[in-house]
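The records we work with from here on pair a chain with its fold. Here is one such record, which you should read through line by line:
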Amino acid sequence: MKKNSLIWSVCCGMAVFLTALAYSPLVLSPDQFEPVLFGMPRTFWAGIVIYLVFLVVIWLGTQVHPEKED
């Protein structure tokens, strides 16, 4: 149970980190469109990557939630 609690804490930390990253100048730079991936500017594809990582973190969090009933 202690291991699940640690993983849950890491998931919470990752959620905060990903939220901060999504709104940081690393992703949201108004005048920079390069590099382009599959015809999408950096802001768009970086947002998609962050969204997909968020989905994995949320799924993992649902599996290890401390009050989850088995």
The chain is about 65% helix and 0% strand.
